UniProtKB/TrEMBL annotation, chain A:
PANTHER family: 3-KETOSTEROID-9-ALPHA-MONOOXYGENASE, OXYGENASE COMPONENT (PTHR21266:SF60), IRON-SULFUR DOMAIN CONTAINING PROTEIN (PTHR21266)
Listed transmembrane segments: none
Keywords carried by this UniProt record: 2Fe-2S, Iron, Iron-sulfur, Metal-binding, Oxidoreductase
Name this polypeptide is given: Rieske 2Fe-2S domain-containing protein
Superkingdom: Bacteria
Organism placement in taxonomy: Bacteria, Bacillati, Actinomycetota, Actinomycetes, Sporichthyales
Keyword Plastid recorded: no
Organism in which the protein naturally occurs: Longivirga aurantiaca
InterPro entries hit by this protein: Cholesterol_7-desaturase (IPR050584), Rieske_2Fe-2S (IPR017941), Rieske_2Fe-2S_sf (IPR036922), VanA_C_cat (IPR044043)
Domain Rieske: 17-118
One Pfam family, short name: Rieske
TrEMBL record, chain B:
Residues in FAD-binding FR-type domain copies: 9-112
Alphabetically ordered keywords of this record: 2Fe-2S, Flavoprotein, Iron, Iron-sulfur, Metal-binding, Oxidoreductase
Family annotation (PROSITE patterns): 2FE2S_FER_1 (PS00197), 2FE2S_FER_2 (PS51085), FAD_FR (PS51384)
Translocase as UniProt keyword: no
Keyword Mitochondrion part of the UniProt annotation: no
Name of the protein described by the UniProt record: PDR/VanB family oxidoreductase
Domain 2Fe-2S ferredoxin-type: 239-324
Organism: Longivirga aurantiaca
Required co-factors: FAD
Pfam family, one: NAD_binding_1
Length: 351, 324
């Protein structure tokens, strides 16, 4: 049975830039993937620019990602049709004239901060929306570790998890600031399209892993924690610790979320730090620790999705700290409502 | 673990006036930037911000730049003849290099996707319409803008609208008279949305014209009557509360919340923050006019009047019926 609530959580905004791949993963070898329920192929054209096309040859049902990049575009591995960066077929092997209408969809692309952002919505509106600015992802002053997973959970469940800072100490007590016993006030700031949450922890010793990397021992640090819902495609956490001498060590947790299909999401995560840069041991430690953390989070999200799928949405008890997650839902619902009025469900229908 | 105190508020920040251009008689266009050059909050067509001026004066102005521009926002501000200080302050005190406090953006006038639009801008009401026509154009929709004003010299942004050629009809009143709404709107169509912003006379005329004939939901208009969530000056009033499922009728006195009245009657009701922010105590409304005071419901959800947060919201009618 499909309740309105379920319909809402499964629907995803199309008019949004999504980070479909890391720049390094897009090269002469075509990369096929699904996003927003569409087949997409990414490749790098001869001039070095990243291109996103519909991953299905106009001639017969065959993925273009099974083809090869040639001068002038991407050639189908089955029939040899060649498509340029605009998705226009420019040559076919069997006749001199390109058949009328031989064209596949081409999607606007922006490459920034080491990511390939693709616009799968109404193409004309792409220039009216912004790609989130995430400069630390591709900056030598920062060292990063990261990973990618496909999760059998809706993208909103992921955002709601990121919005709930109170979950971290329960999912991973060894990672969170050690001062959780006195949870500081949570300040939530909203705009039309974003949600920010912020809290400041009084000076306290760092978690063991971070104290080791900074050689800080038992010294007390102030911690500033901020989370940003930037768009349905990006959630960023900032975690800055400042010692008594005023020096600050910074961490950035970047979560790039893409709905792949109903109930299936892609998560690219990266943890960047501006300390212990160039320290391979630190990379290994952080990759292991945060890789394990995100594995645990994603398993929990898949379990939550399973409960929703099997038993349907039920009443939820929210606490005041959930306001950030509720604001995220509200923003996404407003995006869906402007894209497709039919999706508008009244508050009552969603209760 | 002690409880986490949560506060929720709208974004607020100082912005620098980068340009203040007179774009028509008594109309100034302010271009605002972040003082540190940081990106400004994202917004969509129809959004507005609060300008918080000296002495705590707060006024709402629509954004009339491109949502794709992360560095600047632009506001178009008419010096109102009957100004109570807001627009006079902007015109007299703000110039290049001034700093002004901005809150928001928020959007109670969103542009819903549609194959066809009729836009009507009256006077300074053109401002929210400017990014709307840009978006309609970008998405390949079929659209037309009727822009009415007292005189050509009083109508700002005409140069920018020239790029759309015949899709824009200028209607200066001293040359061609008032907008003829019968012609502008034409016959009702179910593939068309109507967006109008302007003086009250224009809004109510369009409402009257669309009301009976056009499909529900076709007309979108904006009044600058931002809802202040404050207790009424005349004090809180008492009202009758019927809980339909429980079959009881109670009285909510001025000094007690609906939530507490329900609880005191021994009826189970979920509640959590008691500040109107968590959404836990949401209840379905069957009858009665809700006075929404929460931070959970969106503008359209408030308007639907079918759900409410009983911890802080009240009722403006004499009787409220909940499905509880």
């Amino acid at each position: 049975m499909s309740s309105p609530r379920r319909a809402f959580s499964a629907a995803f905004p199309s008019d949004c830039w999504y980070a479909l791949a890391r720049s390094g993963d897009v090269d002469q070898e075509p990369l096929g993937l699904r996003a927003l329920g569409l087949p997409v192929v990414l490749f790098r054209a001869a001039d070095g620019s990243a291109v996103a096309l519909e991953d299905r040859c106009a001639h017969r049902a065959y993925p273009l990602s099974a083809g090869v990049v040639v001068d002038g575009g991407l050639r189908c591995g089955l029939c040899g049709f060649v498509y340029d960066a605009d998705g226009q077929c420019v040559s076919v092997p069997t006749q001199p004239r390109v058949p009328f209408g031989a064209k596949v969809a081409s999607y606007p692309v922006q490459e920034r901060d080491g990511l390939v952002w693709v616009w799968l919505g109404e193409p004309g509106r792409a220039r009216l929306a912004r790609v989130p600015e995430l400069p630390w992802l591709d900056d030598e002053a920062w060292a990063g570790v990261g990973g990618s997973s496909v999760v059998a959970a809706g993208y909103l469940l992921l955002h709601e998890n990121f919005a709930d800072v109170t979950q971290v100490p329960f999912v991973a007590p060894e990672i969170a600031p050690s001062v959780i016993a006195v949870a500081p006030p949570l300040d939530v700031v909203v705009t039309e399209t974003t949600v920010t949450l912020r809290r400041e922890f009084a000076p306290a010793p760092l978690p063991a892993w971070q104290a080791d990397l900074l050689g800080a021992g038992d010294a007390a640090f102030e911690t500033l924690q901020e989370g940003y819902f930037l768009s349905p495609a990006a959630w960023v956490d900032r975690w800055d610790v400042t010692g008594a001498d005023g020096t600050t060590a910074r961490l950035r947790f970047t979560h790039l979320v893409t709905p792949l299909d109903e109930g299936l999401s892609q998560l690219h995560w990266q943890v960047d730090r501006d300390f212990a840069v160039g320290d391979d041991g630190a990379d290994d430690l952080m990759l292991e620790m945060f890789g394990d953390y995100y594995d645990r989070v994603l398993v929990a999200m898949e379990t939550a999705q399973e409960v929703l799928d099997v038993d349907g949405p039920g009443p939820e008890v929210n606490v005041a700290a959930d306001v950030a997650a509720l604001k995220v839902r509200e923003i996404v619902l407003a995006m869906l409502a402007t894209e497709s009025p039919a999706v508008i469900t009244t508050r009552r229908a969603r209760l | 673990m002690t409880g986490t105190k949560t506060t929720v508020r709208e974004y607020e920040g100082d912005m620098l006036v980068e340009a203040a251009d007179v774009v028509a008689e008594d109309v100034v266009a302010l271009t605002l930037v972040d003082p540190d050059g940081d990106p400004l909050p994202a917004w969509t067509p129809g959004a507005h911000v609060d300008l918080i001026m000296e002495g705590g004066l707060v006024r709402q102005y629509s954004l009339c730049s491109s949502p794709g521009d992360s560095r600047t926002i632009r506001l178009g501000i008419l010096r109102a003849p009957e100004s109570r200080g807001g627009s006079a302050y902007v015109h007299e005190k703000l110039s290049v290099g001034s700093v002004v406090r901005v809150r928001g953006p928020r959007n109670h006038f969103p542009l819903v996707a549609s194959p066809r639009y009729i836009f009507i801008g009256g006077g300074i009401g053109i401002t929210p319409i400017l990014p709307m026509v840009a978006e309609a154009e970008a998405s390949g929709a079929d659209w037309h803008l009727y822009y009415g004003g007292r005189a050509r010299s009083s109508m700002g942004f005409v140069d920018e609208l020239a790029q759309y050629g015949g899709k824009v009809t200028l209607v200066p009143q001293d040359e061609v008279g008032m907008l003829d709404l019968a012609t502008v709107l034409g016959d009702p169509r179910d593939d068309t949305l109507v967006y109008v912003c302007g003086p009250e006379g224009l809004l109510s005329a369009v409402e009257a014209k669309c009301g009976a004939d056009w499909p529900a939901g076709a007309l979108h208009l904006e009044r600058f009557a931002a809802k202040e969530i404050e207790a009424p000056a005349e004090g809180e009033r008492s009202f009758e509360l019927e809980l339909a499922a429980s079959g009881v009728t109670l009285t909510v006195p001025p000094d007690k919340s609906i939530f507490d009245v329900i609880l005191d009657a021994g009826i189970s009701v979920l509640g959590s923050c008691h500040e109107g922010i968590c959404g836990t105590c949401e209840q379905i409304v069957l009858e009665g006019e809700v006075d929404h005071r929460d931070s959970v419901l969106s503008a359209s959800e408030r308007a639907a009047n079918d759900a409410m947060m009983v911890c802080v919201s009240r009722c403006t009618s004499d009787r409220l019926v909940l499905d509880l």
